[in-house]
């Protein structure tokens, strides 16, 4: 079937011949007798063409055409008017309403058929054209969508990206490549990469890209591109029509790595040189090591340490110089080459770097140029050596063979080394001062101990004589003297007795260090038993109880350990409360030490006095309440310290005290 035709006419009987003609041409015929039914049939059947009578009752052909064209679902159906009129105005009216043609009654059937076939052909071509245009539009939209998707993918890539075809022309780039290459996407698309970046020909980039294409293999590499002063990390991949490359600007990372490497090298050099400088605390050795090591590190022709003296003058005190150059050591610098204002500048941290002493732009004083040229100096670097913010001297580096541009690395390294030299010098000075003070103190202590021993020994005889004669006086003249005289004699005898006790205690105190015995393995249980035996009378008088856990065997002075236990127990007996004294001793191993405890139930000690009681001659009570010399606990402290330990007290007033002391545990230390 060739198509479907709707014929609209109120006198269809007149059109039988036309219908037969169209049927014969294999068209399907639909008919309508008025405009309204024609519109309904057109909506339902969607005919390929409408033959419309121009003049019909009620709704004429023109109105019917207008309504057909107003309905977008059927507006494209071609309409051919049928009319007996030949007025041009009617035809124009029909064309304006959307008709495509006119046929005049009475019909020439072949003409009508020809016109129908032509317009149906045009309609079909129009439909095909529209479909083709729709397909093309759809294709364009798909292409645009794909392009947008591709661009979105490229832009979503965190790296910069470009693609090259087989002729090395840019085919794709994302926006991230623009700041790296410093060119826009528009400028590069379609251009040859080697024409646009000729400096890259022969570079690592060039070699790797050709390898990707030749071997059809992916590569990744890092390379520096000098024209852009930048480092790039590149991943390049082959594809059918060329290669693609993904870029990252790693300049900051590379520079950071280089800086870390420089810092590491500087740190290594610094630590190596510092170690050598500070291995010795001898002042002369420190200075000579410093100049030798700095000369090696900086590959300088000469390194000199210039010392400033208190009178304002100065001279070289240490030097490392290559054989070809004249030594400066021993030469005094003229005052004019190092004026007073320079001293203050160097004290504040000034660094003098001179690449060429003869260069007028360096502003080097003529007298200094003349002086250094005596020693073939062409370039110099000077940093101050400070000790506690005071200018001690200068660390001077000379280049004699040629001028030299000093780098920041070299300047920073020399400043750090000068700081270490200053620290080493300060430590050497402190050691020298400490050694001198220690020697003076040792001499003073020896003299003092000798004096104490001699004084206490020499005082024994006069005291014995005084005591003996006073006792003799008391026995012979007791009945002849009044009560006051007897009291005076008693006072004198008591004073002499206390003086003797004090001298004996002082003698014991001075002998802890000087007359101590060699350490041996001592059973502390035996030492405690001996101390208790020595105090048997006092323990009995006070009705005291002394108990002890098993005590260890330690390396100690046997006699001094007995003295230590005896003094601590005696102290507990003396400062007892109203209750009979209960003294408990224990020991436990702790952190390579033995911790001893001597616990009592005495009167206790106020917290503010716990350190004072170990100081010689320090008493917390008057002699009438608690007799004694105030030396006993000081002797304990001296004995414990001689054995490498510490002693302290833990106490609560009214509840007793616990004296604690430590002695190294030699078995654990081994």
List keywords for this structure.
five-stranded antiparallel β-sheet; 670 residues; elongated; 48% helix
What does this structure look like?
The protein has a five-stranded parallel beta sheet, with helices on both faces. A five-stranded antiparallel beta sheet has the order 7-6-10-9-8. Strands 12-11-15-14-13 form a five-stranded antiparallel beta sheet. The chain has 670 residues and is of the alpha+beta class. It contains 20 helices and 22 strands.
Estimated helix fraction:
40-55%
What's the average pLDDT? 81
- Ends apart, CA distance between termini: 118 Å
Low-confidence stretches: none
- CA radius of gyration is 59 Å
Main sheet attributes: strand count, strand direction, barrel closure: 5 strands, parallel
What order do the strands of the largest sheet run in, or round the barrel if closed? Answer: 2-1-3-4-5
Helix count, per DSSP? 20
What is the strand and helix layout of this fold?
Blueprint: E1 3-8, H1 16-24, E2 27-32, H2 35-45, E3 49-53, H3 61-70, E4 79-83, H4 88-97, E5 101-104, H5 109-156, E6 160-165, E7 170-173, H6 177-181, H7 185-188, H8 193-196, H9 204-215, E8 219-225, E9 230-239, E10 242-249, H10 251-278, H11 283-298, E11 302-308, E12 314-321, H12 340-347, E13 352-354, H13 366-373, E14 379-387, E15 390-399, H14 408-477, H15 483-514, E16 520-523, H16 524-534, H17 536-541, E17 545-548, E18 553-556, H18 558-574, E19 582-590, E20 593-599, H19 632-642, E21 647-651, E22 657-664, H20 666-669
Parallel strand pairs: 1-2, 1-3, 3-4, 4-5, 17-19
Antiparallel strand pairs: 6-7, 6-10, 8-9, 9-10, 11-12, 11-15, 13-14, 14-15, 16-18, 19-20, 20-22, 21-22
Helix pairs in contact: 1-5, 2-3, 10-11, 10-14, 11-14, 14-15, 15-19, 16-18, 18-19
